[in-house]
């Protein structure tokens, strides 16, 4: 798979990195500065500062309603932030829309799965390849030779991506008819097809059994290693988060209350309080 | 192509079906075995098949309800009349083809003008605005006067006198429509237009563009998240559909000696929508069959005189009730399976 | 100046008819989430019933109006029961096509019963016109009655939906059908009631419309139906005050467009206003803005 032009200049370790001692090697993929959004009078996310390194697996956790998905919606410009800045590969994203942010390198999955249900698994992935394998409308209508070449290429790429999850045999199935776990995996494949440098996974293990979750953990690490991309995930399954995330940020009432390695987070009294309430 | 997928094979059958029906009809026509009333229906059938396919592109493939499709048809129709009647020195077939081409182009332009504002809206609001545009187009055409003389074309939105024609002819006369059209349309050209519309639509659907359009239909937010420019592809589907409707409109107009703007009202838009829904949303072959059957049906019921439209209405309601009855549909599927199972052993049913 | 005033009054009067029809559209949309395209034809049926009562049975106008309301109420409930209720969980487009089928059915039934030749409708309001400013301004009594009827209906409906149990049930069902059912509200009865009220109002609108514009044909309801539907969307579909506002505004715009711009292009202008409003406020003037949850 073709790699994005990477910004390989060395940079000082950013102060907001979850794990400051980690050598990021290249510029961080994601940097947010004092990010915040208000809905009406309500502040949903405030002063959100986070940096994710180029090949880092980072976790975003917190109680229900803490604003985790809102952060994803801000990063992908489903919502326009009220305050602050988002930098993707060092590039300011102010004024960009969802499509442009995706082109800049951010892909995501959704908490409530959003597949193209009436289309086949293969078509879902091909739609992910929309900006990777291009073919003009007129070329398509006239069925010029380059149309067939591009279609073949898209099919090969789609099957190759599906093979990450051993899903190539399901290519002709209708996406909406897949079992729940397979739908979640297909969403990841579709996101990967857009050739991102940052992959946002919103509760990837939701609804999966322990065996499936264990497989998913392996696959997430595999994806990072193979594609050399950063992954930021929201998850309630602590085994998964503690097992694969190198850095974790904890969100409560729209603010980050703690950042650190899995060990640090597990022993942080503020985090324990946020999850379990104040202990007497 | 080595490995034809299931989809392309299905499409091939659709093309074969259309061609076979055409050949049979053409054969019967040559043999003089077609009744006058059916012969008169052949070109309208081609027109409505094209209209249904093109509307299905918006309603079924893009997933937006359009209630003003007849508006684009009328733009194509009146453009076609002006083109064909101002180029009388050319051979008839060239005039017809030019009329269809320019009619389609003008309807496409109308599609852009309508589509840019309309496609910002969603759901029922989008539907009502397409209805509004359909009515606006009809209203404007009702007030359009076009004439031709040696100096060329004259336009007015006031009345026929304002055209200041010097012994020329009035081509479009406001609410009276186009009074003197040369009937240039032929069944062969109608069939070819069906093939063109079918090819454009099917090729569009089974391509990167078509997938992007269907992605928007299935889940707009997910489509944006994978980098699909929603406005661009919605507009593309809408404009293509409008242009194809315009081409059908030109064919339709040149099948009659005169035509009124009133013909292309809300009811015509609805008529085509009924074809699309009964044929199955997104099902192009279904649109073709529904448009053909439902264009013939009222004619076939002519013997029942005043009751035919009433029967049509009742049939429409009953079909909708039946196809949306989960119990009935389940039983039907079971019955089909049973019949198929039995059919293996002995004689097949039906 | 007097001309302007007269146009304004005529506009409000025509708008009142649209508003009464729009109420039927908007209430049904709010509660059943469907575009009831047959609503315009219920107006036509109402007008025919009143016409028959007055011309054939020589009954007084009031009785004619009451009969029209009774028949239309029953008609509305029957249509809902037979054609729409089985489609509660069907896709909205299927319901729309069924509604179109019902519309064809009503128009063609009317064509069979009353034939296609236009009937001349005698105004139900027999009062003399009102003369103001020493004869400079003459307002027909139908105009006044229409506006008054609109105000009365508006007040009655607001009280009904705000104060009575059935009215509150309607609001609950339109907000969340499932939750309303769990609270013990009979959803089917509530929807049926909504159709009854909407259709009863349609009968009044039909009588008033034909009193002002006395030609009655099987297609009489179509265009006012579409206009009223436009009015409902303009005001924000699902909103009762929105239907009122949208209807009256549409009436004023139409009459002013006819008087000062162009009689022929008035429809185009009306629809253009709708489009412009929707582009600025995508859910109409008083409609709720909804944000899709991601």
User: Which structural class is indicated by helix and strand composition of chain A?
Assistant: alpha/beta
**Spatial shape of chain A:** globular
Q: What is the number of E strands of chain B? A: 3
Rough outline of chain B = globular
Series of H and E elements of chain B: HHHHHEEEHHHHHHHH
State the domain count of chain B: 1
The strand count of chain A comes to 10
Q: Assembly state here?
A: heterotrimer
Low-confidence stretches of chain A: 1-15
Widest sheet: strand ordering of chain B: 2-1-3
Count of DSSP-assigned helices of chain A: 10
Summarize the structure.
The complex is a heterotrimer of chains A (280), B (350) and C (294). Chain A is α/β, with parallel strands linked by helices and 280 residues long. Chain A contains 10 helices and 10 strands.
Keywords:
heterotrimer, A: 280 residues, alpha/beta, Rossmann fold, 2 domains, 6-stranded mixed beta sheet, 4-stranded antiparallel beta sheet, globular, C: 294 residues, mainly alpha, two-stranded antiparallel sheet, 11 helices, 4 strands, 3% strand
């Amino acid at each position: 798979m073709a790699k994005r032009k990477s910004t390989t200049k060395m940079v000082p370790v950013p102060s907001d990195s979850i794990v400051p001692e980690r050598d990021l090697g290249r510029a961080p993929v994601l940097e947010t500065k004092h990010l915040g959004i208000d809905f009406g009078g309500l502040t949903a996310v405030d002063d959100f500062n986070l940096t994710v390194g180029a090949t880092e697996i980072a976790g975003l956790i917190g109680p229900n309603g803490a604003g985790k998905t809102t952060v994803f919606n801000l990063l992908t410009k489903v919502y326009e932030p009220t305050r602050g800045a988002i930098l993707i590969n060092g590039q300011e994203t102010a004024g960009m829309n969802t499509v442009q942010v995706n082109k800049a390198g951010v892909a995501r999955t959704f908490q409530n799965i959003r597949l193209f249900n009436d289309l086949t698994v293969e078509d879902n992935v091909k739609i992910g390849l929309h900006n990777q394998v291009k073919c003009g409308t007129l070329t398509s209508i006239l069925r010029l030779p380059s149309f067939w070449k591009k279609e073949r290429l898209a099919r090969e790429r789609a099957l190759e991506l599906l093979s990450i999850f051993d899903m190539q045999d399901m290519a002709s199935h209708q996406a909406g008819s897949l079992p729940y776990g397979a739908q979640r995996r297909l969403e990841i494949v579709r996101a990967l097809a857009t050739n991102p440098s940052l992959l946002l996974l919103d509760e990837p293990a939701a609804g999966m059994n322990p065996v499936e979750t264990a497989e998913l953990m392996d696959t997430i690490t595999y994806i990072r290693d193979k594609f050399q991309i950063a992954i930021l995930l929201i998850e309630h399954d602590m085994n998964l988060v503690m097992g694969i995330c190198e850095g974790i940020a904890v969100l409560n009432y729209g603010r980050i209350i703690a950042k650190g390695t899995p060990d640090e987070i597990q022993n942080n009294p503020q985090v324990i309080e946020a999850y379990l309430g104040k202990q007497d | 192509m080595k490995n034809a997928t299931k989809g392309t094979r299905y499409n091939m059958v659709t093309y074969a079906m259309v061609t076979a029906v055409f050949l049979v009809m053409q054969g019967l026509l040559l043999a003089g075995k077609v009744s006058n009333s059916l012969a008169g229906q052949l070109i309208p059938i081609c027109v409505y098949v094209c209209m249904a396919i093109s509307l299905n592109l918006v309603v079924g493939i893009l997933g937006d309800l359009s209630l003003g499709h007849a508006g684009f048809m009328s733009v194509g129709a009146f453009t076609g009349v002006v083109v064909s009647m101002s180029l009388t020195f050319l051979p008839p077939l060239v005039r017809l083809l030019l009329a269809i081409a320019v009619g389609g182009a003008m309807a496409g332009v109308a599609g852009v003008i309508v589509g840019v504002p309309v496609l910002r809206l969603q759901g029922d609001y989008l539907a009502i605005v397409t209805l509004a545009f359909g009515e606006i187009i009809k209203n404007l055409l009702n007030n359009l006067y076009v004439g031709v003389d040696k100096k060329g074309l004259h336009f007015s939105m006031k009345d026929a006198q304002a055209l200041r024609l010097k012994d020329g002819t009035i081509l479009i006369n406001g609410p009276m429509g186009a009074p003197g059209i040369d009937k240039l349309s032929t069944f062969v050209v109608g069939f070819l237009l069906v093939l063109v519309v079918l090819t454009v639509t099917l090729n569009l659907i089974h391509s990167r563009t078509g997938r992007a359009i269907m992605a928007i239909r299935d889940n707009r937010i997910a489509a944006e998240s994978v980098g699909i420019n929603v406005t661009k592809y919605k507009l593309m589907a809408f404009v293509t559909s409008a242009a194809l409707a315009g081409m059908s409109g030109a064919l339709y107009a040149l099948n009659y000696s005169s035509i009124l703007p009133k013909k292309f009202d809300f009811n015509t838009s609805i008529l085509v929508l009924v074809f699309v829904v009964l044929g199955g949303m997104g099902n192009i072959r279904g649109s073709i069959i529904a448009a053909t059957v439902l264009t013939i049906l009222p004619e076939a019921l002519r013997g029942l005189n005043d009751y035919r439209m009433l029967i049509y209405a009742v049939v429409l309601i009953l079909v909708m009730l039946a196809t949306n009855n989960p119990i009935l549909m389940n039983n039907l599927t079971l019955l089909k399976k049973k019949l198929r199972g039995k059919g293996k052993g002995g004689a097949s049913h039906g | 100046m007097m001309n302007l005033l007269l146009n304004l009054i005529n506009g409000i009067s025509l708008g009142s008819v649209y508003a009464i029809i729009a109420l039927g559209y908007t209430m049904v949309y709010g509660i059943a989430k469907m575009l009831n395209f047959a609503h315009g034809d219920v107006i036509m049926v109402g007008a025919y019933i009143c016409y028959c009562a007055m011309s054939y049975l020589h009954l007084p106008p009031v009785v004619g109006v009451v009969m029209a309301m009774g028949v239309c109420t029953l008609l509305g409930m029957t249509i809902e029961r037979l054609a729409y209720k089985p489609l509660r969980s069907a896709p909205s487009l299927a319901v729309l096509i069924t509604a179109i089928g019902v519309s064809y059915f009503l128009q063609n039934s009317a064509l069979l019963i009353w034939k296609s030749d236009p009937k001349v409708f005698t105004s139900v309001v027999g009062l003399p016109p009102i003369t103001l400013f020493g004869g400079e301004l003459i307002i027909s009594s139908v105009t006044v009655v229409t506006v008054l009827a609109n105000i009365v209906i508006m007040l009655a409906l607001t009280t009904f939906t705000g104060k009575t149990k059935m009215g509150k049930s309607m609001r609950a069902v339109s907000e969340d059908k499932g939750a309303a059912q769990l609270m013990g509200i009979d959803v089917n009865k509530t929807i049926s009631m909504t159709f009854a009220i909407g259709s009863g109002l349609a009968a009044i609108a039909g009588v008033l419309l034909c009193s002002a514009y006395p030609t009655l044909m099987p297609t009489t309801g179509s265009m006012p139906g579409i206009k009223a539907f436009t009015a409902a969307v303009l005001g924000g579909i699902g909103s009762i005050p929105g239907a009122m506002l949208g209807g009256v505004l549409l009436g004023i715009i139409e009459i002013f467009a006819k008087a000062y711009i162009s009689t022929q292009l008035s429809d185009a202008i009306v629809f253009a206003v709708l489009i412009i409003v929707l582009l600025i406020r995508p859910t109409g003037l008083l409609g709720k803005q909804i944000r899709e949850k991601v």
